[in-house]
Task: inverse folding
């Protein structure tokens, strides 16, 4: 579903303040690499349910991060697309899809809430469908770049250390 995360971001911050949570403003994506348990936002999208669970778990500090979609995100992918060998129809399709996403420049594309309990991070993350499409295109291009590099012989050619 396409969500208005700009409005939701303001609503969440007001709710956090009203519930007297200490809010730590984290960087988007900073949770990567930590042991996380993700909230099922598809079936339970209500952030208040997540924060109620945080309260019942005794959390006083909530990590909050949001990310704005930037023109540079699209520009970077268009540059990468130029470096990949796609057939002309696929390349045109990716270019068209990326250009359509320019309508979302400056809007919030990701919200993350998290709290720590028993050395685990419990995470609530939302992204609109249009941003999921962007990430899918990014994955497709990245996978093609990796395949191209392997085809060019940039691998170690089966060499490995027996140490």
Result:
């Amino acid at each position: 579903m396409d969500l208005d995360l700009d409005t939701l971001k303001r609503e969440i911050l007001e709710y956090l303040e009203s519930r007297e949570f200490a809010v730590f403003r984290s960087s988007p994506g900073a949770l990567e690499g930590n042991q996380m348990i993700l909230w099922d936002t598809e079936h339970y999208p209500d952030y208040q349910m997540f924060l109620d669970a945080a309260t019942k778990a005794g959390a006083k500090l909530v990590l909050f991060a949001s990310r704005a979609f930037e023109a540079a995100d699209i520009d970077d992918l268009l540059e990468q697309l130029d470096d990949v060998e796609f057939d002309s129809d696929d390349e045109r399709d990716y270019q068209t899809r990326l250009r359509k996403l320019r309508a979302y420049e400056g809007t919030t594309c990701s919200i993350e809430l998290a709290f720590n309990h028993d050395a685990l991070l419990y995470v609530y993350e939302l992204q609109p469908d249009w941003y999921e499409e962007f990430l899918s295109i990014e994955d497709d291009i990245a996978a093609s770049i990796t395949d191209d590099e392997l085809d060019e012989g940039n691998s170690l050619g089966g060499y490995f250390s027996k140490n």
